Amino acid sequence: MAQLISRLRVWRGAVLLLAGLYFLIPMAASVWFSIDDVNGTIAFDAYTGLISAPGFTDSLVLTLELAVVTVVVLLLLLVPAMIAVRLGSPKLRPLLEVVCTLPLVVPPVALTAGLIGVLRWGPDYLMDTPFFQTFVFVQQPEFPLVLVIAYVLMALPLAYRALDSGLRAVDVRTLVEAARNCGASWPRAVVQVILPNLRGALLNASFLTLALVLGEFTTASILGYQPFAVWIYSVGNSQGQMSVAVSVLSLLITWVLLLLLAAAGRERRHKTATAS
Amino acid sequence: MTTAPTPVPAPAAADLSGGPGAAGTATNSPTLPNSTPPSSTLRSSAPKAAGRRLLRGKSWLATVPLLVFFLIGFGLPAVAIVTGAFTVSSDADTGAGSFTTANVTDSVQGAYWTALVSSVKLSALTALIGTVVGVPIAQAVLTSRFRVLREAVLTASGVLANFGGLPLAFAFVATLGNAGELTKMFHLTDHGWSLYSFTGLTVAYLYFLVPLMVLTITPALEGLRVQWREAAQNNRATSLQYWRHVALPILFPSLLGGFVLLFGSAFAAYATAAAMVGATVPLISRQIADALSGNVLVGQGNLALALSLDMIIVAVLVMAVYLPLQRRSARWLS
Questions:
Q1: Vertex B116 angle, CA B115 and B122, to 5°
Q2: Residues of A with Cβ-Cβ distance to B135 under 8 angstroms
Q3: Considering CB atoms only, which of B32, B60, B171 is closest to A84?
Q4: Contacts of A107 in chain B (CB under 8 A)
Q5: Rg (CA), chain B
Q6: If both were cysteines, with which of A64, A117, A227, B91 could B80 make a disulfide (CB 3.0 to 4.6 Å apart)?
Q7: What are phi and psi of A216, to 5 degrees?
């Protein structure tokens, strides 16, 4: 028995060590690459030079705006629908599930191709109709709403699963009925009783969406906009060191975001893990 | 050796909920109904019925915005892909807008077929390696005595699974590219190493696929009950036999589900390949992007839509394998 246990420990240690090496080496090498100077000294030029690089602020602001709008739109669309399906319209639940799973089978490139196909209808068929203005509005370069549409669709499966596991852990019906019995109105029951119970799931869904939008490259680059990821790509072609520096930064930012999320929704995460 | 005579909750699950503060929330949510005992009888009668009637009437309205958004945002592009794939491009000399199957037949020939096959090969290979490698890691982490390690690995997996795209490409170029740190340190190019190849792409893809597998398979591994293992051991099964005859059959649907998820992620990935290997490894996603950017012959604008249709069909076929199996796993790992 003791022999078995020690053999297990060796096996487990070896697996974890190999995995650790594979996952840590690229990070360490990236950090080293980004601060390694030509003369072999350490310099942080790549990081300090970022802020003054042309296009940095514009693209970053655009990405953050897109991220916030996407998260808000997604939650406003999804949360009421999911709560309503739990409470009053269980028959719509399969439909909702299908709607939230379908985007999985359409890769972002294909979705973009479809969007371009639709946008081409504008000048092709709808030139003289009021719809044409909508097409122009959706594609305005200052704030391309078409990207928000694409991002909401891409984030739909992720957010749905996050919210669904959150809702599973909460007895929505009982909570609402209790609140109603205490005299709360419908909106109040939802906002003050259900939403606080879903805090972890809401944060989780928001974070996943945020991470998706911050890193999204495919749709934006093909449609010809320049949010942060596309900007990094153009920088990467000319200044390798700076692009690696941005990669390191983006990894750090994602990490901090997730740690914050883990701290905020820790209890909830345990509960959903047990429930699922 | 202890065998539990009665079914008890899965130890892993019980262990998980024992964290600091977890018990607090567990009792937190039911406090509201419990604190008003008289209402519990009422709840089941009049107000409930009234509430339901109210809900039945109006609650579906809350799903309308989502469905309308979906119909416009997803339905229109889907229609555009299907109609576009079967009509002549608007930039063609003759017959613009008329029905044709030329786009679809072209999209499964020559360079496009090579790209599709190589995409499928890359996704299947990386998903397979990711599954095979991810399970031992998840198991090693789960059975570890250190809570901190488990938390750290799961959090790290969450970050790394989202670490696809450009940053990943740049990180690997900095590590194993021609001027990368490891390449310089070990003179890997002399040994025939190139990141800008099928192998290089595989190594890079695994960086986000393995964590994705760890995240996906962990709940299933947690669902494996200790009693099953003990029962196997009491019947003198070796560790290998336990895995071969008990654990793997139960895990199989979850494993397949993870594989499908990994396949889908690898298949859809575009940015990593675009930034890392350029055109040296032909991939269907890159071909679509090229066709959309206008790098095709005049009159072939709709080829991109036909290629997208191919891609969706592959994804749907793979998903179709997985969905029926998922039902089976629910029976054991609830």
A1: 85
A2: none
A3: B60
A4: 264, 267-268, 270, 285, 311-312, 315
A5: 26
A6: A117
A7: -70, 130
Q: Is A8 a member of any domain?
A: no
Q: Is residue A251 part of a domain?
A: yes
Average pLDDT over residues A160-181: 87
**Total domain count for chain A?**
1
Greatest distance between any 2 Cα atoms in chain A: 82
Considering the entire predicted model, what is its pTM? 0.79
Q: What's the rounded mean pLDDT across residues B17-42?
A: 39
The domain spans of chain B are: 113-301+313-332
DSSP state of B19: S
Q: Is the pLDDT of residue A109 over 80?
A: yes
* Mutation for A interface: B70, B151, B242, B277, most A CBs within 10 A: B70
CB B303 within 8 A of CB B106: yes
A251: domain range? 43-275
ipTM confidence score:
0.83
Inside any domain, residue A118: yes
Contacts of A167 (CB under 8 A, 6+ apart): A82, A83, A86, A198, A201
Q: How many other C-beta atoms are found inside a 10 Å radius of the C-beta of residue B264? A: 20
Residue B28 Cα distances to A115, A196, B86, B224, angstroms: 46, 11, 57, 29
Residue A143 lies in a domain: yes
CATH 2.102.10.10 fits B113-301+313-332, yes or no: no
With b for 16 or more beta-carbon neighbours within 10 A and e for fewer, the B78-109 pattern comes to: bebbbebbbbbbbebeeeeeeebebbbebbee
Q: Write down the pLDDT at residue B58.
A: 74
